[in-house]
Amino acid sequence: MPFSPELVLFDLDGTFADTAPDLAHALNRTLAEQQRPALPFEHIRPVVSLGGIALIRLGFPDVDEGDPRFERYRHRFLDIYLEDIAGHTCLFPGIAEVLARLESRHRRWGIVTNKPAWLTNPLLQALDLTRRACCVVSGDTLPRRKPHPDPLLHACSLAGVEPAATVYVGDARRDVEAGHGAGMPVIVARYGYIPTDEDPAAWGGEAMIDSPLDLLDLLAD
After folding, report:
1. What are the residue ranges spanned by the domains of the chain?
2. Given 11, 22, 171, 214, which residue is catalytic?
3. Residue 214 annotated as catalytic
């Protein structure tokens, strides 16, 4: 089913940019500082879309969130990540071509992520994409973040495009919930950071893709 959106919005981690290598490095450095063994990358990758709290839970399963060490480890992890936020991060293969196609057709694109702005903005700057995105909505831009639809509705408002003329692309169930709550179709990125116990086909998205280049077949000229 082809879509003809005026605006395409992307989730950031796991959909637009492959940030897992840098986040895994930051987590394993945090573990090393506490004399704990590193975790295999394949164990970390599926958790990345769930955010920093989930990654600290993964790395320190014996430290409860109420333990003062938990927040200390989380802050240290984020500090390490910010030091070299795009050391190994790159756009997923095909995203550059998708953006070029959208821009050649005078279609707008933007980012809606739960990543806080103090991490989102430096990352997009490092990728040299800040000026090209028509809108960037981070996890702390509004009081409520995904799965609430507010961030997507805010992005549409910033772009001057109705939600019904927008498509959201994401790799998590909350992306589908947020998109549907905002009244827009959602394309699920199966190549993203999806936990092994999740079935993206059950999320109810309007389409699924195995590569960003698949978007070119779904977005009608």
Report:
1. 7-18+89-218, 20-83
2. 11
3. no
